[in-house]
Design goal:
It comes from Pseudoxanthobacter soli DSM 19599. Pfam families: Gly_kinase. InterPro entries: Glyc_kinase_flavodox-like_fold, Glycerate_kinase, Glycerate_kinase_RE-like, Glycerate_kinase_sf. The chain is α/β, with parallel strands linked by helices. It has 13 helices and 13 strands. It has a six-stranded mixed β-sheet with strand order 3-4-5-6-9-10, with helices on both faces. Helix 11 links the parallel strand 11 and strand 12.
Length: about 375
């Protein structure tokens, strides 16, 4: 019997690989001789590098990069086992968690470090780049990233713009001539799971600016700056990104990656599952197990378990999900390919207790799911 285990991480407690290992441990108590294939996955956010590195036998590359406020930070990116694909989480260099709450300032925060990660990956020979754009501290439309890769953003006097979204209102001209020539030979995918446009009432500044420290006055300035950037990009490249769905992700970095580097925006879970070869893994599976920290009505909107289920159902395979917790409306996932769903919590507890006991809870739940599966087989026989 072949069992494919393809979960996402349980945030703040277990990585996707850890979850997969615990599920295997629990199932092995009931089915010790089964063929287990572990395929940890992610949706393009936190844990994407680890998932792809683990699934392909790759490596995590650590380096010093420019942080959101211009100071050096210890960052990382991943290389898949064949060395051809680099996996970058923008939050590793430009993430909100890198900035103390009292210092958050989207007028000055830069994505320059993301450009440095891209350049470092190019130096290692990667020509397929996957960029996850969750958890940003920035609102600069990818301006800093572009500058790190050789693009010049100039004001009316021909001076280079300073870092941050607050300077974009002064942008007068974009000079693309210095862009790293290796970019032309790259395929770049942006793991993007929001559909917010770059500007406007549902754009990057209005929706995500407040969590990055933006006041109402700042939001107006940032939105105007991104609108100016979009206008200058249209003039220079012929691309219109102001209203592009998903362009507002990571403070407009998604739009910048598309316009400056020719990147394609795609659902994060889809990108990751293609990269780890999930379809081939489930083709002859008897059972597919997935899961994440919480399953509720939001799960059906591009989250990992639904992506895994879609791949499995194309092959006609049964799917069971194991979750850290279930929302009262978790049943909606049954209409999207998940045949059964289980919570790992067996009793009321605090969040701290749930996080501390996550590994054991996943293992015990997996054992119970396996026992139920075996009972079903005996009844069916």
């Amino acid at each position: 019997m072949k069992i494919v285990i393809a979960p996402d991480s349980f945030k703040e407690s277990l990585s996707a690989l850890d979850v997969a290992r615990e599920i295997k441990a629990g199932f092995s108590e009931v089915f010790p001789d089964a063929d287990y294939v572990l395929v940890p996955v992610a949706d393009g956010g936190e844990g994407t590098v680890e998932a792809l590195v683990a699934a392909t036998g790759g490596e995590v590359v650590k380096l010093t990069a420019t942080g959101p406020l211009g100071t050096a930070v210890e960052a990382f990116y991943g290389l898949t086992g064949d060395g051809a694909t680099a996996v970058i989480e923008m939050a590793a260099a430009s993430g909100l968690e890198l900035v103390p709450p009292d210092r958050r300032d989207p007028l000055k925060a830069t994505t320059f470090g993301v450009g440095e990660l891209i350049r470092a990956a190019l130096d290692r020979g990667a020509r397929h780049l996957i960029v996850g754009v969750g958890g940003s501290a920035t609102n600069d439309g990818g301006a800093g990233m572009a500058q790190a890769l050789g693009i010049r953003l100039l004001d009316a006097a021909g001076r280079d713009l300073p870092p941050g979204g607050g300077a974009l209102g002064d942008l007068a001209r974009i000079d693309l001539s210095g862009l790293d020539p290796r970019i032309a030979g790259c395929r770049i995918e942006v793991a993007c799971d929001v559909d917010n446009p770059l500007v406007g009432p549902n754009g990057a500044s209005a929706i995500f600016g407040p969590q990055k420290g933006a006041t109402a006055e700042m939001i107006a300035q940032l939105d105007a700056g991104l609108a100016n950037l979009a206008a200058k990009l249209a003039e220079e490249t012929g691309l219109f990104v102001a209203e592009m769905p998903g362009g507002g992700a990571a403070g407009g970095l998604a739009a910048g990656l598309h316009a400056f580097l020719g990147a394609e925006l795609r659902p994060g879970a889809e990108i990751v599952m293609n990269a780890v070869g999930l379809d081939a893994a489930v083709a002859d599976a008897d059972l597919v197990l997935t899961g994440e920290g919480r399953i509720d009505h939001q799960t059906i909107h591009g989250k990992t378990p639904i992506g895994v289920a879609a791949v499995a159902k194309r092959r006609g395979r049964p799917v069971v999900a194991i979750a850290g917790s279930l929302g009262k409306d978790a049943h909606v996932v049954h209409a999207h390919g998940i045949d059964a769903v289980f919570s790992v919590l067996s009793r009321p507890c605090t969040v701290a207790e749930a996080l501390a006991g996550a590994a054991e809870n996943v293992r015990v739940t997996a054992r119970n799911v396996a026992a139920t599966w075996r009972l079903g087989q005996s009844v069916g026989a």
